[in-house]
Design a protein that fits this description.
The protein has 487 residues and is α/β, with parallel strands linked by helices. It is 37% helix and 14% strand. It is globular and about 70 Å long. The termini are far apart. Keywords: Pyridoxal phosphate.
Length: 487
């Protein structure tokens, strides 16, 4: 007898086009579906969905839209597609093998071989006595686990984190966040104290004429006084990005991270480094905190680069002492998909690829050229106030005609930035925009020729921003040309 599929719920009617192979919907079909079935866009208004491209495929450092236009991925998407858009064959094969063998097991029920392997690999990759504790799905979840870990280990409620920081959009990660995104609901979560990192926007620690050493000491003194006023025995951890990411690629000055480590040791506070954006090679070290000599945190949270963004996965690691503390008690944090075997399989092969192909060493080799290009753009464009760069991670700061900050991050972009963004796309670049910062973070596998091409595309885009901000209008053109010649 012929078997026939029976729709047991005839009230559900779906478009027959759903049963066509992926890649066969036309641009008109995609756009019509998007218009009829709207979705939200998280950190920007929902209507922004009408201004993003339909991405069809990727190759290496490039993405392509449905018109066939090529775009160089200038920020590795959200600083996460570190190996570009060609997933290594071993990643695909291991993920497929794991999916065929055992697509899922809940972490509290059983332990897979891939989890055990990944755990050992992380113990070998992490410095000191740091060990992988849990493998959540996102950076925010990894930070949530780290916060819970610190509070339960110390028995203290408060967490100190910086203004100009971002740690995720879940409740506690959002509350630890120091930029405007915590305003959307996380400010009501108790137990979080904000401090200034060494890079406040409108003042200098130690005064305008202070040396870097004096400013560092003033920043540490200010933090210590804040700790004393909050109550040292109330503070579980000091939580910070090793290199501040979305806030502008802020690399901590000499002696600052060492000073934080010393303060934590003095008052029994845990040092928690958020490596979500800069972990796994972005800065030319496996982990960002390794750029600061002698600094070893107690808790490390990582994501993004651990799987090259091919599948969601993160990691929270901790010291041996913290690990042993939880031998006879629960962490107090969990997730259904913690240690998902397919996700770990992808990350396992991704990290092995980083090691086998010396991606971290390659970043170190490319870093001088990367910084040279950053400096050239800062010198050649009057709209750029300054730049920072470490490894393959950099940021240009935009200034207006009178040298001031033309836009705070929470403010809507004005017409000059809209013109720049249009030029950015027309020049074949795609990436995140966090004005007044312009981030540069291409995939770590980019070649020298591709890197130079990317900076040339950005150069042309910045010329549009120069003009849009008024640097080359009739009144200022001659002065700026003289200034440019002087550089």
């Amino acid at each position: 007898m012929e078997n026939k599929l029976v729709n047991t719920n005839p009230t559900i009617q779906v478009d027959s086009a759903h049963f066509e192979p992926l890649g066969t919907w036309t641009s008109d079909k995609l756009n019509a579906s998007r218009a009829a079935n709207p979705f939200l866009m998280t950190w920007v208004p929902g209507s922004a969905r009408n201004n993003v491209m339909n991405v069809t495929h990727g190759e290496g450092v490039y993405l392509y839209d449905d018109k066939g236009k090529q775009y160089l991925d200038w920020t590795s998407q959200a600083v996460c597609a570190n190996l570009g858009h060609d997933v290594p064959r071993a990643v695909i094969e291991t993920a497929a093998q794991q999916m065929a063998t055992l697509p899922f097991v809940y972490g509290g029920v059983g332990v897979t071989e891939i989890r055990t392997r990944m755990n050992q690999l992380m113990a070998e990759v992490l410095p000191g006595d740091l060990r992988a504790a849990v493998f959540p799905s996102s950076g925010a979840e990894a930070n949530e686990a780290g916060i819970m870990m610190a509070r339960r280990f110390t028995g203290r409620p408060k967490v100190i984190s910086w203004y100009r920081s971002y740690h995720g959009a879940t409740a506690h990660a959002g509350a630890a966040t120091g930029d405007f995104r915590r305003w959307y609901g996380s400010d009501q979560v108790p137990g979080y104290v904000k401090a200034f990192n060494p890079f406040p926007l409108f003042f200098n620690h130690g005064g305008n004429n202070a040396t870097e050493e004096e400013s560092v000491q003033a920043a540490l003194n200010m933090l210590e006084e804040q700790i004393l006023n909050e109550g040292p025995d109330q503070i579980a951890s000091i939580m910070m990005e090793s290199v501040v990411g979305a806030g502008g690629c802020l690399v901590m000055p000499e002696g600052y991270m060492q000073g934080i480590r010393a303060i934590c040791d003095e008052y029994g506070i845990l040092m928690h480094c958020d490596e979500v954006m800069v972990g796994f090679g972005r800065t030319g070290q496996m982990f960002g905190f390794q750029n600061y000599e002698g600094v070893l945190p107690d808790i490390v949270s990582a994501a993004k680069g651990i799987s090259g963004a091919a599948i969601p996965l993160s990691m929270t690691a901790c010291s041996e002492e913290i690990m042993q503390f939880f031998d006879d008690k629960p962490l107090g944090w969990g997730s259904t998909y913690q240690a998902h075997p397919v996700a770990i399989a992808v990350a396992y092969e991704n990290v092995k690829h980083l090691l086998q192909h010396n991606i971290v060493g390659r970043v170190q080799q490319m870093a001088p050229l990367f910084e040279e290009c950053m400096q050239r753009l800062a010198n050649d464009h009057p709209c750029i106030k300054q730049y920072r760069a470490i490894g393959m991670f950099g940021c240009l700061d935009v200034k207006d005609m009178d040298g001031r900050n033309p836009k705070l991050q929470h403010e809507a972009a004005h017409e000059a930035f809209n013109k720049y963004k249009k030029a950015y796309a027309e020049n074949g670049l795609v990436g995140l925009h966090r004005y007044p910062h312009i981030h540069c973070a291409p995939p770590l596998i980019i070649t020298e020729d591709e890197l130079l091409d990317g900076f040339d595309r950005l150069d042309r885009s910045l010329t549009v921003l120069d003009e849009a901000l008024g640097y080359y209008d009739d009144e200022h053109r001659d002065d700026n040309q003289v200034a440019a010649a002087g550089r």
